Amino acid sequence: MEIQTIKKLEKEALKKSGTDFTRLGFALFFMIGVLTFSFLNNGGISNNMFLAVAALIGAYMAMNIGANDVANNVGPAVGSKAMTMTMAIVIAAVFEAAGAIIAGGEVVKTIKKGIIDISAFGGNSDPFIWAMMAALLAAALWLNFATMMRAPVSTTHSIVGGVMGAGIAAAGFSIVSWSTMAKIAASWVISPILGGLIAAVFLFSIKKSIIFKEDKVEAAKKYVPLFVAMMSWAFVTYLTLKGLKKIWPQVVDILNFIPFVSIEMSKKPSLLTALLMGLTVALIVYFYMVKRLTSNKSKLENTRDSVNTLFTIPLIFSAALLSFAHGANDVANAIGPLAAINDAVLHGGISSKASIPLWVMGVGALGIALGLALYGPKLIKTVGSEITDLDQVRAFSIAMAASITVIIASQLGLPVSSTHIAIGGVFGVGFLREYLHLNETVNTIEEDQLIIADEKNNLQAYKAELKTLEAKEEKSSLEYERVVELYKLISEEEKLIKSTKKHIKRVQKVEFVKRDAVKKIIAAWLITVPAAATLSAILFFMIRGIML
């Protein structure tokens, strides 16, 4: 038996190592392909090898974004069984790449969030290029480490830390906009709390209006169309504000072709425009859902599982839309510094904004999709099932939190992280479950406490009687029998009190959120910026030492 077990373990180990080597092979093939293409495509310029290496690092960063950050968009849907892992990876990869290429924009800010002052480089492009390369590599290495540790972290914060560290190494602490950094640090608290609260509110609303009702079918017919319409409203608004802002002029041109529709040209969509577009879609979705649920084809059972199935398709749409918006926005984390390096190499100067060549955008889009396909499942499992158990209703609440929090925060000017919002939403639904469980068991705990009080009274009475009998010098045979009986009764009472106390502790200690996962993730969040900054500063000095 032991030999057979060892053989099985060896077989599994070989299978796992073979899979790991295959993944690594695909990743290296992509990065070497990007290096070769960049070198050949820019062969006529000086420093083309340096640009090719930067492209290689950009490809590595893009893959790490796909492996770590995209899990937040599809993790809850996979954990709730609304989608399979394969389906989630295909949908997310396609929509991430589409978001990056279609709505990623033609121009990107070279310094993410304006955290350092580029004038401190004095127009000298060499240290700027070294700083951007160090920032990109440091952020990618940190994301790679976080993914290995199964800790979902913010890619935006990673690149922010990288840029800050390299900037300080290149030009001192004065280069950093510390007020901007304070806002980013505040997002570590704002993002998860907002996400958690909104997710908990929606979950409680669904439970109160549908799940806790005796007639769940009738309640579902009444309220599910409303909740799905609200989700449609939130997501179209979110997508318009965050996913379409860079191609808004083209969107306006298309919409103006529609009869009776006229939208004034603006650089980006206003909140009112986005809300009106969302409301239009929401009304269509509402009436469609009402018609579907009231039709004879709708066969619902009076169970929670049956209600859960109604949220499956909305979750699939939410995963796709979140991925599109994420690709449109966070591709800049991979290609922003690369575009800055490309611009500096081509034009020999430093610019606050840089145009993005199509090949650079392609590196970001394909890298994110490939990183997700090769290494995304680890983090998808962590987000979807290793923090708290999720079903479709809970995952739906998390998706709602992700869209609504970004809308609120963007209008208030609060810096938030999509990663922190999504994970905060997972925490929120988990802790709400714990709270509701404790409320449900209040009566049980009170009953146990009454039992303990009664048994303690009995115990004291038995002990008092035993003390009286033992104080007698001469005892009758009946009294001796009573002493023996009292010892048995006291022992039984003590056992009963002890077991009842243990039951209370077990009820109170039920945890629907895995505390170890919470501690690990929060620790990773707190050290992301300083870790990336420190690593970036070290890499900057290494690159400068090599180049000088």
UniProtKB/TrEMBL annotation:
Major localization class: membrane
Keywords (A to Z) from UniProt: Coiled coil, Membrane, Phosphate transport, Transmembrane, Transmembrane helix, Transport
Any single GO BP term: phosphate ion transmembrane transport
Domain of life the protein comes from: Bacteria
Coiled coil: 445-479
Stretches that traverse the bilayer: 21-39, 45-63, 84-108, 128-147, 159-178, 184-203, 223-241, 270-289, 310-328, 356-375, 395-414, 522-543
Subcellular localization, as worded in the UniProt entry: Membrane
GO annotation, cellular component aspect: membrane
Membrane topology: Multi-pass membrane protein
PANTHER family: PHOSPHATE TRANSPORTER
Protein name (record): Phosphate transporter
Species in which this protein is naturally found: Sulfurimonas aquatica
